[in-house]
Amino acid sequence: MSAASVQNGSAELPPNAVEAGYRQTTILIGAIGVSIVILIAAVLMLNRTLPAPVPGPAFTTLRLVLFAVAGVVVFVSTILKVVVLRKAPAHPLLRLSRLKSAAVMSAAMAEIPAILGFTLYIMGRGLGDFFVLAAISVYMLVRHFPRRAFWDEYVRLGPSGGVR
Asked: What's the number of domains the chain is made of?
């Protein structure tokens, strides 16, 4: 292994490591996206069969709290991803591992607003609340979906190009 290969970040990186890691991660994120679709289908089916509850004054407070939590999740997921990727490890395989972890973490956090919306739907039958929070989840999945060009650059050079 030459000093130049260590300096440019290609030390001991298997030829298809980035491609394989990227594919595994996108499949996992796709599964998280499918779980949001399943929540939507469940709400639509439950909407036909469940009687409408009579939400009390405590429901309004719960609704505001869960919307606030969803807003915090959007903010925290973005900040956390930036923080995780800011300091890249020296070895390219460790950088790849860090990318995979950051992507899965962001996708998992993207699912939280949809789950909160499902909770609100079950408790108060507000379709609008559910769909707003589900739309936030879908937005977060799209926003944090891994970009292959960024992965190639990050694994090769570290965070020099900025976190996306």
From this structure: 1
CA nearest to 136, candidates 62, 74, 66, 43 = 74
Please tell me the predicted confidence (pLDDT) of residue 21: 95
Compute the CA torsion angle 157, 102, 31, 27 (nearest 10 deg).
20
Report yes or no: 47 and 127 within 8 Å, Cβ to Cβ.
yes
Asked if residue 38 is part of any domain, the answer here is yes
This prediction's pTM: 0.83
Residue 51 DSSP symbol: P
CB 131 within 8 A of CB 117: yes
The pair of structure tokens assigned to 80 is: 């956390």
The residue ranges of the chain whose pLDDT is under 70 are 1-11, 159-164
**4 located within any domain:** no
- Within 8 A by CB and 6+ apart from 145, the residues are 26, 29, 107
Tell which residue, 95, 109, 93, has the closest CA to residue 160.
95
Torsion angle, alpha carbons of 142, 147, 150, 156, to 10: 140
Question: Is 164 part of a structural domain of the chain?
Answer: no
Q: Which domain holds residue 25?
A: 15-159
Residue 1 lies in a domain: no
H-run or E-run covering 114: helix 92-124
